[in-house]
Protein 1
Amino acid sequence: MRHRITRRRLLAAVLLVATLATTVAGVLRLRVETTLDSFLPRGDPAVTALADNARSFGGDPIVAVLESSAPRGLLLGQGQLSALMRLEGTLAHLPDVAAVYGPATIMNQIAITSQDMIARLSGTRDGLRARAEDDARGKGLSAAAVKAAGEAAVGDFDRRYGGLLVRGLPAGLPTTSNPNFVQNVIYDGAGQPRARWHFVVPTANSVTVLVRPREGLDETATRRLVSAVRNAVSAAGLATSRTTVTGVPVITSAVTDEATGEIPLIGGLALVVLLLRFLLASRAQSWWRKLWPLTAAVTGSALTLAAFGWAGLPVSFGAIMLLPLLLGIGSSFPLYLGAVADRRKVVVVSLASAAAFGSLAISPLPFVRELGLALALGVLLTVAVTLVLGHKMAPPPRVRTQGAAPGALRWVVVVCLVVLAAAGWVALPRLDVRASPEDVASGLPALAQARYAEQVLGSSGQVSVVLRGTDTQSPDALRWLTQAQDAAVARFGDQLRPVLTAPDLLGFLGDQPTAQQISAGMQLLPPYLTTAVFSPDGRQALLSFGLKFQDLGAQAQLLRDLRAALPPPPAGDQVDTVGLPVAAVHAYDQVSRDRYPANLTGIAAAGLVLLAGLRRRSDAWRAMLAAALATGWMIAGLWALGQSLSPLTVALGSLASVTACEFTILLLDGARARRVAMWACATSAIGYLALVPSRIGLLREFGLTLAATVLLSYLAALAVARSGQRRKSRPAARTALPEAELVEV
C-alpha cells in the first residue's frame, strides 16, 4: 500500500532536515580551548594579579632551551652568537610577542650601553675635574692646590664607577664580535655562567631564550605562537646537540591538541562499545528497537555540542569526557522509559540527574563548571529526544514482586555498610588534592619535556615579589628590594632561584645610592633589561624567582613562608606575590576547602528534585541515602589505597548521586525495572571506562574512579532498596504485551 505524502509528513521531514543541518553546523563551530584561565579560579585575586602582571611584563614565557656539546659553544663558537641574535630578532618580531629575552640580545644591548657608558663616564669624570680645577684657579690657589681640588672632585666618582672601567677595559672593546668581552660579561674565571645571567645562560653548555606572549591570548593564537617559535628555532642554524621548547603555553597547547585529537577517538570508542552492548544484549527485535536508546543518546550529545558551538562558548579539554559520559548515562533513559510504567517518574529522575551534574557549577575551576553544565544540558536534551523518538513505545504495566521484611542479619549488614560510608566521609579531609594546572598534562610528552628543562634550568615555574607604589625607583624602594631579595635567598636559597631583579641590575650603584644616582644608572642600562623589572610608569618593581615542580601543599607553605620573611614595605607601598604558582595554590586552597560542599551539593540538589517530583517521598530519601553511601565507600577506598583527589573527583558526591538516585528509584519500582538498573549500571560504567585509553593521566584516573563509583552506586542502591522493602500483597496478573511493545535491554 502506497504511503501518501501528507502535508504533516512533509513538514516533519523539513523540520528533521533543518534540525540535522543546524546541529551539524553547530558542532562544526565548536571550539576546544585549554587556556590557563580554565584551570584557575575565575575572579580570584591571585588570578587577577597574574593578569595585571602579564599586561605590564608579558605572560608566562615560552622557553627554548638550546644545548651544545662544547662548553660555551653557543656564545663563543664561530658564528653562533650572530645566529643566536638573528633567532632572537626573529622571535621578537612574531605576532603576539610582548618581549624576548636571550643572551645574544642581552650581550648586544650591554655592548652598546657599555660603549656609551664608558664614554659618558670618561666625559663626566673629565668634566668634574676640569670644573674643580677652574674653580681653584679662579680663587688664586697654587698649582698643587688646583691639582688636589681636581683629584678630590673625581674621588667619589672613581669609588662608585671606577670598578666598571677597570672590569671593562681589560676585556677590550665592548662589542659582541669581541670574544673576550662576551667571556668577561657572561662567564666567571672558571668558565661558568655568572649568577645574574642564569635565566638566559643556565649552564656552560646551554642557553635559554624566553618568549613572553602578550597578555590575554586565546588558545588559537597561543598554538600559532608556539608553532612559530618551534619553526624559528629549527631554522636558526645553531650547532645544538638538543633543543627543548617548553613553558606553560606549550603545555596548554599540547593539552588542546591532545583533547582535540582524542574527542573523536574516545567518543567513537564509547559509541562502538555501547553499540555492541545493545546489539548483543537485546534479543530478537527490530534494529530500530535495539538501537533507539543509543540513537537518542547520540542525538542528545550532538545537540549539546551544537548548543555550545552556536553560543560561541569554547569547551575545555573536558569535552573529551562529554561524549562518553553522555552516551553512557544518556542511553540509559530510553531503557528507563521502556521499563517504568510511570513516565513521569523517569522525567523526574532525569531532572534529578541534571541537577546533580549542574551542581558542579559551584566548583571554583571553570573547566569543571563547564563540564557540569554541559552534562546537565546533555541529560535534558537526551531525555527530550527520547520522549520524541520513543513516544510510540508503550511502557509495561506496573509489576511489583513480593518483598520480605529485612531480618536481623540484614540490618547488621546495613549498619556495617553505613559505618564504612561514614568512615569515608570522615576521611575526606585527609585525602590529598591535586589541583595544579600541570597535573592536567600528566602523561603527555610536553610535561616530560618541561621536567627535563627543569633539570637544565634549575626551575620550572616563576613567582614574582611585586612592589607597588608611586615611585618604585626611589632609594627607599631600591633598598627594600635589596633587603627582600637577600631575605628570600638567605632563607629559601635551596628552593628559590633569583631570575632577574632590580638589585642585580643596579648593584653597581653601591649600597646607598641617591635618587640622582639611581636615575643616572637607569639611563645607563638598556631599556631592554630595565623594563623586565620596572613597569614603564615606575609604579611596579619585580623580584622574580624560579622554583621547581613540587607538591602544591608544600608549594603553598613555601609561598606563605616567603611572604612572612619579607620586610615591611616602604610607607605607602604595597607588596604582593604574583605568578602561576601563586594562582595554582589559591586554586588548591579553594578546591580543598570546598570538599564537603562539593560532595553534598549534588546529593542535595538531586534529592530536592526527587522530593518535589516523586509521589512517594520515602523513595527520594532512600535515593539520597544510596548516593551518600556510594560516595562514602568510594572515598574510603581511595583513602585506603593512598590515592588522591583531582578537581574532577573532589565532587564525587555530585557524580555518584546521578547513578545512585537512578538505580534506587528503578530498584524500588519493580522486577523489570530492576533488570534495567543492572544493565544501566553496565552501560554507565562502559561510558566512563572509555576514558581509560586517553593519554591524559587525569582523564584515565577519572574514568577508572567513576566506573568504580557507578558499581558502588548500584550496590548502594541495591542495599537501600532491599533494606527498605516491605511485605506486599501478591502481584496482579501481568497483562501480556506483544514482543514488539517491550523494550528489551
Protein 2
Amino acid sequence: MDGEHTALENGLLDNGLSGSLGSDFDDDFAPFIYEPDPTLPENRYLDRELSWLAFNQRVLELAEDPLLPVLERANFLAIFASNLDEFFMVRVAGLKRRIATGLAVPTNVGRAPQDVLADISLKAHELQVRHAKAYRELVLPALEAAGITVSSWDELDEADKVQMREVFSQQIFPVLMPLAVDPAHPFPYISGLSLNLSVRVRNSRTGKEQFARLKVPQMLPRFVRIDQREGLGQVRFLRLEDLIANHLGDLFPGMEILDHHVFRVTRNEDVEIDEDETENLIQALERELLRRRFGPPIRLEVTDDMDDVTLGLLVRELDVTEQEVYRLPAPLDLGGLFDLSRIDRPDLHYPNHVPTTAPQLMPSEPNAKPDIFAAVARQDILLHHPYESFATSVQAFVEQAAADPHVLAIKQTLYRTSGDSPIVEALIDAAEAGKQVLALVEIKARFDEQNNISWARKLEKAGVHVVYGLVGLKTHCKLALVIREEKGVLKHYSHIGTGNYNPKTSRIYEDLGLLTADDQVGKDLTRLFNELSGYAIEKKFKRLLVAPLHLRKGLLKRIDTEAANAAAGRPSGIRIKLNSIVDEAIIDALYRASQAGVPVELWVRGICGLVPGREGLSENIRVRSVLGRYLEHSRVFSFVNDSDPQVYIGSADMMHRNLDRRVEALVRLTAPEHLAELDRLFDLAFDERTAAWVLAEDGVWTRHHLDENGAPLTDLQTKLQQQATQRPRSARTGTRR
C-alpha cells in the first residue's frame, strides 16, 4: 500500500500522495523453482490473494472504527477503494493473462487458477458491499454529525437547485462529451477507472430508443460545494455524477430521458517488456505505457439498480464475464473520498505531528548550521521516519554533499521520488558543480514509469550519469554513497534505507535508515554500484546481503542457525518485520525453526502466506499486523544467534520478486544501541497491551484494540511519536563495534 495517482492516490505505492496504507504491488509470478520439504504437511500455506484481500479488510476496519477521526475514516475508505483497483489492475489481470495464454500460474495452496479467481471474485464482492455499507451507514452519518453533509439532488430545496444549475451550466456543461451509440457511432472506448453514466433516451418523433455514454470528467472535483444555507461550521456537497444526472435534458435536448445508471471499468494495466529483445529500454517502455490505456477490461462495476438491457449491452460490448460484473450500491468509486478527506478541519483529523530532528544531527550550538558529515563520522546514526525528520537527515545529507567542495562523488538509487524532489535538485546541483554524480533510476517502477523517465532525462541534461540498472531486474534497494576527501584521504559516507528517497512519502511512511561512515559499508556500496552501472560481478559483501544472488541464501542460513541453536539448548529467536511474506523456502525454514523450538515473531503489514500456531508445525510462531496513521514500511530481520545478535534492515520483502527479480540490499547493524532500539520496537509491537491484528491458524485476522473494559489499547504509532518528542538530545548514539 509507491505511485502517483490521479488513478492511485492512496499511498498504496510509494507515491507521496494522500494515503497512508498500501500494498506495494507487483506481478509476482516468478520462475523460482523450490523443491518442497517432504517432511512438512502439504496444506501449510495461506492463499496469497485472499491474504491480500484480508489486508484490505483491515484497512476497511479502520474506516469502520468510530474511535478514529471521521475525516481519517473517509480517507481509509478511499484507500480501500484505490488499493482494490490496483489489485485488479495488476494481480487479477496477471492471473487472467496467464490463464488465457496457457502460461503456468504457480499457486502455493495447490488449487486451480480458475478456483482462485472465483474465490477472489466472491471475497472482493463481499468486501465492496461492506465498503459501501460502511460509507452509507457509518461514515456519512458521522460526517453529517460533524457538520459535513453529502446531499442528494432530491434533498436540495429550490434555492440550492437554482445555485447548482448555475454551477452546472457555467463550470460543468462545457466540459461534458455525450457519446451516442448507433450505426454511425460505434460503442466508445471506456477508459480504465473512469466514472461513467449510461443513458437510455427515446426520440420523441420516431419513438426509437438509443444508448449514450457520458464520462464524468476526472479533472473536476468529485464533490461539488453547495453554498446555500450553510451555517457556521456547516458545509454541504453534492456528488458530481448526481449533479450531471439531473441535467441530462440539457445534454440531449428534444430526447426523452428513459433511464440512467453509473458504471465503471477496471482494465489490465500491467506492462510487459522483453528487456533481452529491446535495444532502447526507455523507448520500449514508453510504447508499452501507451498500450496500457487499452488493456482488456477485467472488472465492470455497476450500480445495483441498473436494468438488464443496459447491463447486457455493457457486458457484450466490453466482453466481460458474469464473474467480472460487480453490482454495488451507489455511489461507485469511493476513491473520490480523498477530496473530502482533505477538508481543513483539524478537529476531524489525526493531531498534527511535527517530526523531530535526530538528536545526533542537532547542531551543538543554538542557531548553528548542522554538519551531517561530522555527526556521521562520530557514530552510526539509525533514523526512524516519520517520527524523525527526513528533511533534516537524509535530504540534508544529500544537499550538504552537493554543496560541499570536499565531496568528489555522489552515487544514489532512485526508485520513486516526487517530481519536485529536493533530492533530484541536489543531484543536479552537484553535477553542475563538477562533481561525479551517478543516479541509478528504476524506470520500471510500476505506475511511476512516466514520471521516472521525465526526471531521468532532466538529470541527464544536467550532466548526471544516469543508468537504468540490470537487464531483467528491478533495482529496488535504497542506497546513497558519498565520497569525500578529508586530509588527503577518501572517506565513504553511506545511507541505506528501507524506503524511497521521497520527501512526501517520508511524512506518512514508516521507514528506517542507517547513516554511517563505516569504511566496510562504503566499500560494499562501491562494489555494488559498480555492478549496477557496469559489468562487474561482485560475489561477496561484508556488511550487506544482496539479492538476487545471496539474500535468500543468507537469510536461510541464519534461520537454520537459529534452529540448530535451539536444538542444542542455546539462546535462539527470530524477529522479522516486513510488508509481505509468501516465499515458500523462507516460510518452510521458519516452520522448521519453530519445530526446533525457536520463538518466531513476524510483524507483517500485508500478505502472509505462513500459517501460525499450528500444533507440530508452527506453534512457536506469532504473527501480528499494525495498520494506522502511517504506512508500516520498514523491513527488519533480527536473529538472536546464541546471544550475538545479527540484525539487518533493508528494502526486501520475502516474495519471489524481491528475492529473485530485484536488486535488494540489507545492511547489518552493529551498534549495540541500535540493536537494543529495534528490540524495544518489537517488544512494543508484540505487547498484549498494544493494539494490533493477530493472525490465527485458519487465516483469519482478528483486531485487538480494546481492553476487557472497552478502553483503547496502546497505539504503537502514537507511542513512538511521544517517545521521539521526549527523547533527550544525547540519546541513541551509535558507536560502531
Protein 3
Amino acid sequence: MSGTTSIEIYDTTLRDGTQAEDIHLSVEDKVRIALKLDELGIDFIEGGWPGSNPKDVQFFSEIQSYALRHSRIAAFGSTHSAKTAADDDPNLQALVNAKAPVVTIFGKTWDVHVRDALRVSLEKNLAMIEDSLAWLRPRVETLFYDAEHFFDGFKANPDYALETLRRAAAGGAERLVLCDTNGGTLPHEVTEIVERVRDALGPEASLGIHAHNDADVAVANTLAAVRAGAVHVQGTMNGFGERCGNANLCSIIPALVLKMGLGCTAGERLERLTATSRFISEIANLPHNKYQPYVGASAFAHKGGIHVSAVQRNPETYEHVPPERVGNVQRILISELAGRSNVLAKARQFGLDIDSQDPAVLEIVAQLKELEARGFQFEGAEASFELLMRQAMGTRRKYFDLMGFRVIDHKVREDEAPQAEATVMVRVGGQVEHTAAVGDGPVNALDNAIRKALDTFYPQLREVSLLDYKVRVLPGRPGTGAKVRVLIESTDGRDKWGTVGVSHDILEASWQALVDGIRYKLLKSEHKDG
C-alpha cells in the first residue's frame, strides 16, 4: 500500500466505548462527541444500537438536527432473530427507522456460537445473514457487515467462516469487517488470516478490521490487517471499550499516516488529534491517560538529564514523531534525575533569563535533588518549582511573611459533621493581619483564612479556587509517623497551576502547598501587570 491508498476510519466510541466500566454518556454527551469527531475528519461515527435502548433512539433523532461536515452516522444492530423473518424483525425495523445513512449489522461466524448461543443450524445462520442484509440493502444508503468472532471462527472452521462472508456479500454488504471479538488473536495470525480471506474471496471483496485489546495488541492487529489488505478500520478514541478496550484510534490514525504513508481524512487533521482525545476523556468524566502514545501528556515528556540534553540538540533523538504533528507538545520534567539541561529548559519555558554558567543553575539542581530526597515531587507542581528557581536567582518577591497558623475542629452534636476553624497571622510590609475563618475541614479553613488575611492587600486572590487536592503517604517511617506529600491544583479561571508540600504533619504540608499556590498567583499577576 502507498499514500494513494485511502483508509476508512469508523469510530465506535459511542457504542463500544460506552460498554467500558465507569463510562456513562448522556444523549447530549454523545452529540458533543460526534461533533468533535466530525471536526477531526472521522469517516463514520457509529451512534449506537437503536433497537436496544431509548437513549440511542433519541441520539439518532437529535443528530439529524446537525449538518456534519464530513462524518456519516452509522446505526448498529444484529441479523434478524431466528424466531422471525427479516420482514417482521423489530431490530431491523429499528435500524431503518433510525434514518442513519449507514447501517452496520453483525452476524455469527464461529460455529461454536451458532450452535451454543444461537442454537440454530449452520445453514440457518447463513440464511439469517444473507436475508438480513438483502432486506436492508434497498432501504439504506450504505451497508456494512461485522463478522463477529471471525478470527476464532476461522481458526476453528475456516470453510464455514469464509462462507458467512460470501453470504454477507451476496446480501449486499459493501464492507466485510473481520472482528477479533475476544481480542486474543496475535498480529502474525491476523496477517495470515486476512491474506487467506483475500485469496479466497478475490480482489472485489472490500475488507475491514475490528479488534479488541484483550491481548494488548489491538493496535498492532489493526495495522497488520491493513498491511494485509484491509481498507476499513474500526476502533474507539482512547481505546475505550469493554474489558480491556478496543483498538485505539488515537494510535492507529497517526501510525497509518506517519508510519505507513497511508491516507485518511482524519490524517489530514492530525494536529487536532490530542485535543479531540482529551475532550472525549473530559466528556466521559475520566482522567486522560497521560501515558497514552501520541496524545498523552507524557508521550513527549523527558525526565533523564541525558535525554533532555539530547532532545534540546535534536528532538529526533528521543521523539519518534514531532509532537506538534499530533497536536501535542514536548515537556521537560523536573526530578531528582534532572541535570543542568532540564533546569535550563524549564527556565526558557518560564521565561527566565539564566545563563548555563550561572552558579544559580547548579544551586537549583542541588536543591532539587535534596528536596526530592525529602519527598518533594515537582512533576505535578511546576509552580512550586518556578518559585524555587526564582528564589535561587534572587528574583522572587516575598509578598508576605507567615507568622503562624492554628487549626481547631469543632463538633457541636454527634449527628453533625465537624467544622474546622483556622487562625493565621501574616505580615505584609509593616502591617500584621491576624484572621480567623471556618471551613469544611482543616485545609478548606486554612485556605479561607489565608486568603481572608491577604484580601485587602491582594484582591486578585478572590479569583483563585482549588481544583484538586491529593495526599500521598510516603514510604519510609511506618504508621502515623510517616511523611505525607500534598499536591494542590489551583486555578484563577484562566490558568491552572500545581504546588507541593511535604511534612510529617498533613496540615503543615497542606499549608506549604496552599501558600505556594497563592504566591504563584501573585507572581503571575505582577508579571501580567508589568
